[in-house]
Amino acid sequence: MQVLVYGEWENSTKNIKPFFTASYFEKDKIDVRPREFKGKISFLFVGTLSNGKQPLYAIKLIQNLHQNGNDVRLIVFGEGNERADLERYISENNLEDIVLLKGNQNQETIKTAYLENHFVVLPSVSEGWPKVIAEGMFWGCLPIASKVSCVPNMLDNGQRGILLEMKLNEDTNAIQNLINDPNLYQDKVNNAILWSRNYTLDVFEDEIKKLLS
């Protein structure tokens, strides 16, 4: 029996087939403009507002960066049972101007957000193939993500983004160091775009055909 597994894993048996999923076609590939750190530095969170996705941790990261003197903003897309708690935290900490809860949005709106913002944050407890990360990379929105599932493989252990340690001050410092080095940021963005655009729906369909033939 052949088993499809997201990502590449050491010491896998021969019947384990590294695989992927995709969101976009070859025809969707358009040039992505570089994003400089002039003016507001903008972060995205895209996902369910639940304990498993840990949106509060994303908010605390942006809060720390703001307290360090950075002009930052976090846009949150999604709904879930933690929304009321997030609204309360935002209000109690006077974060209304830097954390925006936008609710559920259509794919085109989220695609535009990936194209216009600097980072996408995903501090999940668990993932399969995190499409949010792959989609952000496709449009040059650099991922900041926890070390779950195949994420370290997707991010090439930090060459295509930032891997979270889930220690607030340590993770804040890692993001700050990248903000302080725009050239390194752009190198990581370029690496992310090149890698993610290998995994289109056209390639996905071809690989499925090969497996079935």
DSSP E strands, number: 8
Largest sheet: 6 strands, parallel
In what order do the strands lie side by side in the largest sheet? 5-4-3-6-7-8
Number of H/I helices: 8
What's the rounded overall pLDDT mean? Answer: 91
Helix-and-strand structural type:
alpha/beta
What is the helix content? 25-40%
- Which spans have pLDDT < 50 for at least 5 consecutive residues? none
Element-level helix/strand string: EEEHEHEHEHEHEHHH
Overview of the structural elements:
The chain is of the alpha/beta class and 213 residues long. Helices cover 39% and strands 17% of the residues. The chain is built from 8 helices and 8 strands. It has helices spanning 55-67, 83-92, 107-116, 131-138, 151-154, 168-179, 182-196, 201-212, and strands at residues 3-6, 16-19, 41-46, 72-77, 99-103, 119-122, 142-146, 162-164. The strands form 2 sheets. A 6-stranded parallel sheet has the order 5-4-3-6-7-8, sandwiched between helices. Strands 1-2 form a two-stranded parallel sheet. Strand 6 (119-122), helix 4 (131-138) and strand 7 (142-146) form a beta-alpha-beta unit. Helix 1 packs across helix 6. The longest helix is centred in the C-terminal third of the chain and has 15 residues, at 182-196. It is globular and about 60 Å long. 34% of the residues are buried. The model has no long low-confidence stretch (mean pLDDT 91).
